[in-house]
Structure formats: structure tokens, C-alpha cells
Specification:
The chain is mainly beta. The chain contains one helix and four strands; from the N terminus they run H-E-E-E-E. The protein has one helix at residues 25-29; strands at residues 42-44, 47-50, 72-75, 80-84. A hairpin with a 2-residue loop joins strand 1 and strand 2 (47-50). The protein is globular.
């Protein structure tokens, strides 16, 4: 698979947000997104919860990363992986994951 060339760097000014850290779920977890599958992140305290975009490929008949996690937690301060689920739902994905995590007290 060939990827498009990287976009040119943006000119960041004093009123723009700072990128503090990033976590590449495709490289780190092997997830495979489909049709820009994504979710909102949930931040509770120092934890960042996210549902990685695991999905079918463009043929709609193959799941390239069936063993990748469907839910992870990251530590927002040192920006490292904290936990992932082992529900093994990947092989049973109908199309893709688009749900956002939520919390209740």
C-alpha cells in the first residue's frame, strides 16, 4: 500500500494550540481504519480513553487487524499506553468501530 506524501508543516503562531504529544495507533497497535472511522476521546483525570478505529478494508470482506484492541487507555502526562481490552471482538466487526467512550458516576 502506498501512502500519500506528508502535508507541509503548518506555520504555528502564538495563538495556535500546542501539540503536546501524539500516539499513532496504526503503528503502535496495528489498527486499520475504514472510511475515516474515528471516535471522540474521553479524558478523565490523567487518563485518555479511546476506541481505536478497527474496521474492514475497502473490499468489505476482510478485517486486516482482527486482533487489535477495540478500547485503550493512555496516560496523558507521560503520553504512554496504560491498558487495552482483550475482548477479541475484531473478528466479529460488522463494518467498523465508530463509538465514543463515555463515563458515568
Amino acid at each position: 500500500m502506498s501512502l500519500a506524501p506528508a502535508s507541509p508543516r503548518a506555520n504555528i503562531g502564538p495563538k495556535d494550540a500546542d501539540i503536546i504529544w501524539r500516539y499513532d495507533m496504526m503503528d503502535e497497535l496495528g489498527v486499520f481504519p475504514h472510511n475515516a472511522s474515528n471516535c471522540s476521546v474521553l479524558i478523565v483525570g490523567d487518563r485518555v480513553y479511546v476506541a481505536p478505529p478497527t474496521a474492514q478494508d475497502w473490499t468489505h470482506s476482510n478485517i486486516p487487524s482482527p486482533n487489535s484492541p477495540s478500547f485503550i487507555a493512555l496516560d496523558k502526562r507521560p503520553s504512554h499506553w496504560r491498558a487495552k481490552n482483550d475482548a477479541q471482538i475484531g473478528p466479529h466487526i460488522f463494518h467498523g468501530l465508530w463509538s465514543s467512550p463515555s463515563a458515568a458516576w
